[in-house]
């Protein structure tokens, strides 16, 4: 089984979420089910059915997080001391050479990627194109809208 890379920060965040949903949210749902049961007839009890559905979703998320964490390998990218080229964990600032727009992304594992948080998975075409490149490099990136040329403006280890 291949281990999936994850940043130390990503692993910590997933462990915290798992701890919360196992030890706090799970009990809150059990309490809500007990309270709804006390209201009588379960067939027409919307609160009971909603709590049971939430319980199913919570248990599925627990299994998902446990699976992700068991298959992940923490990459201590800060300890590598590589700042002159793009590596896993790097935050890369790029400029689109057509639009002159700049964007910054941290390259992380699949389970922690979230475009709204400016983190992208190392399996994405843009991350694959940027890895091992240096500041000043012009990189061609395949996007759904076609090929883009971007220039690497900055590389940081957060």
TrEMBL record:
Keyword Mitochondrion: no
Cited PROSITE patterns: GREAB_1
InterPro entries assigned: GreA/GreB_C_sf, TF_GreA/GreB_CS, Tscrpt_elong_fac_GreA, Tscrpt_elong_fac_GreA/B, Tscrpt_elong_fac_GreA/B_C, Tscrpt_elong_fac_GreA/B_fam, Tscrpt_elong_fac_GreA/B_N, Tscrpt_elong_fac_GreA/B_N_sf
Domain of life: Bacteria
Pfam family, one: GreA_GreB_N
Segments forming a coiled coil: none
BP GO terms, sorted: DNA-templated transcription elongation; regulation of DNA-templated transcription elongation
Keyword vocabulary terms for this entry: DNA-binding, Elongation factor, Protein biosynthesis, Transcription, Transcription regulation
Gene Ontology MF terms: DNA binding; RNA polymerase binding; translation elongation factor activity
Domain annotation Transcription elongation factor GreA/GreB C-terminal: ranges: 83-156
Domain Transcription elongation factor GreA/GreB N-terminal: 5-74
Family as reported in the entry's similarity comment: Belongs to the GreA/GreB family.
Function statement: Necessary for efficient RNA polymerase transcription elongation past template-encoded arresting sites. The arresting sites in DNA have the property of trapping a certain fraction of elongating RNA polymerases that pass through, resulting in locked ternary complexes. Cleavage of the nascent transcript by cleavage factors such as GreA or GreB allows the resumption of elongation from the new 3'terminus. GreA releases sequences of 2 to 3 nucleotides.
Descriptive protein name: Transcription elongation factor GreA
Organism: SAR86 cluster bacterium
């Amino acid at each position: 089984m291949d281990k999936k890379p994850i940043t130390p920060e990503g692993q910590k965040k997933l462990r915290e979420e798992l701890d919360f949903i196992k030890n706090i949210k799970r009990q809150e749902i059990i309490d809500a089910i007990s309270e709804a049961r006390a209201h009588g007839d379960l067939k027409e009890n919307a609160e009971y059915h909603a709590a049971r559905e939430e319980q199913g979703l919570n248990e599925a998320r627990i299994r998902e997080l446990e699976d992700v964490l068991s298959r992940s390998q923490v990459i201590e990218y800060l300890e590598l001391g590589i700042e002159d080229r793009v590596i896993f964990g790097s935050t890369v600032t790029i400029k689109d050479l057509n639009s002159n727009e700049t964007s910054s992304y941290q390259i992380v594992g699949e389970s922690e990627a979230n475009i709204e948080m400016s983190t992208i998975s190392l399996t994405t075409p843009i991350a694959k194109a940027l890895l091992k490149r240096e500041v000043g490099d012009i990189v061609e990136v395949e996007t759904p809208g076609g090929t883009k040329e971007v220039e690497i403006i900055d590389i940081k280890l957060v």
